[in-house]
């Protein structure tokens, strides 16, 4: 699957909903392709008190549920159609799920690609690897 097709898959899931107590969901969506070629998707959930989860974490949860952990490429899309780079927590989350994910291609705005390892230099956990 191309970066553009992965982007379209994520964008098709945008469905911004209001939840109780100012909570919202679905204004960011994520699609990832695993090393085995499967596609998993997720949406964000934002709740008060900084409780919630990013679309990337939601997609990764689906992937792990299906017994895969190695991500070939991943993209997150905001409701206006722009591509969002993963937040710091998601970068770490992707890296800690599987050592191979340091080679994951992160799709950036304008379909630029960067490897996760280039977004996470000077690993804190290299002592244990
Ligand atoms: Zn995040």
UniProtKB/TrEMBL annotation:
Superkingdom, natural source: Bacteria
InterPro entries: APOBEC/CMP_deaminase_Zn-bd, CMP_dCMP_dom, Cyt/Deoxycyt_deaminase, Cytidine_deaminase-like
GO function term, MF aspect, one: zinc ion binding
UniProt family annotation: Belongs to the cytidine and deoxycytidylate deaminase family.
Gene source species: Wansuia hejianensis
GO terms under cellular component: cytosol
Domain CMP/dCMP-type deaminase: 1-127
Protein name (Swiss-Prot/TrEMBL): Cytidine deaminase
GO BP term, pick one: pyrimidine-containing compound metabolic process
Recorded coiled-coil stretches: none
Pfam annotation, one family: dCMP_cyt_deam_1
Keywords associated with the record: Hydrolase, Metal-binding, Zinc
